[in-house]
Design brief:
Oligomer: single chain
Distance between the termini: 69 Å
CATH superfamily of the largest domain: GAF domain
Strand content: 5-15%
Helix content: 55-70%
Largest sheet: 6 strands, antiparallel
Structural class: alpha+beta
CATH class of the largest domain: Alpha Beta
Radius of gyration: 35 Å
């Protein structure tokens, strides 16, 4: 079954139903063609045979056999042509379906591998690899390579972070964007389409952002883009970031790519939540140490003295 509820074509089922198809299409064509050519043949041969002096019964028999033969031949040829065309169409649809299944499998395996590595990073099993490093090098960059393999167009990924006033977006992590673009990205949230998932917590996608009157192009963008998917990244019940994927072309993604990007959003959410949780714990620990009396074994002053 497809996502829209329609039944996918099945090659095995086609061959099982072939006799029925012949009965439904071929037999009707045989009868209609046969009747037509029967009438034409009878009239033609009756005229020809009678003109030559042949007996009426003989002429009529020859005419009927001739007409039925022609009708059967033409009707069978038409039904065979239609069946071949349908078989070719079903074969092409099966190939497309097989390609989509292969992409689903590759995407699922890729997301599973990312999630496994992320758990190792969170658990401290991968030394010298931090969550921020893994977000960019272990998730966004490989995901961009995967999406580039699905379409022949430029694609860029980013995770936008709001400032403390919740008024502007900066680019926390990115793949495909230049380092300069990443560093200089600082735009009002109200001027971005990412404000929509940031505000209501639901994912959005646009086959062509220029068709949406809410779209405002970034004046500092190095090139225009058209397709876009925007996924909210939550920590608890609050949206803490927005995961964006943009393409230079219109209609650059399909349902398979959209499902993959949604899965990426879930992995990124795990990473961002773990990162924020660690940051909050570090902040609480720092405040707790500052509240300790001077001279305590874990007080900030004792730590500074120990560090020279």
């Amino acid at each position: 079954m497809t996502e829209s509820g329609e039944e996918q074509p099945n090659k095995a089922r086609f061959w099982e139903n072939l006799p029925a198809e012949v009965m439904k299409s071929g037999l009707v064509n045989l009868i209609s063609k046969g009747i037509f050519w029967l009438i034409v043949g009878i009239l033609f041969l009756l005229f020809a045979l009678i003109s030559d002096g042949a007996d009426m019964p003989v002429a009529a028999t020859v005419a009927i056999v001739f007409a039925v033969s022609i009708g059967l031949f033409l009707g069978f040829r038409r039904s065979t042509t239609r069946l071949r065309a349908r078989n070719k169409r079903l074969t092409e649809e099966n190939k497309r379906l097989s390609a989509r299944v292969d992409r689903y499998g590759a995407h699922s395996a890729h997301v599973g591998m990312m999630l496994d590595h992320l758990h190792q990073v969170i658990g401290g099993k991968l030394k010298d690899v931090t969550i921020p490093d893994f977000l960019e090098q272990g998730i966004l960059a490989p995901a961009r390579d995967m999406l580039l393999g699905d379409c022949d167009c430029d694609v860029r990924l980013s995770i936008l972070l709001p400032d403390k006033a919740h008024e502007r977006f900066t680019m926390g992590w990115a793949a495909g964007h230049s380092f300069e673009s990443k560093q200089k990205y600082n735009v009002p949230i109200a001027d971005t389409l990412a404000r929509l998932p940031y505000a209501d917590g639901f994912p959005y996608d646009w086959a062509d952002v220029t068709a949406d009157n809410r779209f405002k192009p970034n004046p500092r963008a190095t090139r225009p883009f058209h397709s876009m998917v925007s996924i909210p990244i939550k920590h608890g019940d609050e949206v803490q970031a927005v995961f964006n994927v943009i393409w230079a072309d219109r209609n650059a993604y399909d349902d398979t790519a959209l499902n993959y990007i949604t899965s990426l959003g879930a992995v990124i959410q795990v990473a961002v939540s773990a990162f924020l949780k660690d940051a909050q714990q570090a902040q609480r620990s720092k405040k707790a140490r500052r509240a300790l009396p001077v001279g305590s074994p874990v007080s900030p002053a004792r730590e500074e003295d120990a560090n020279g």
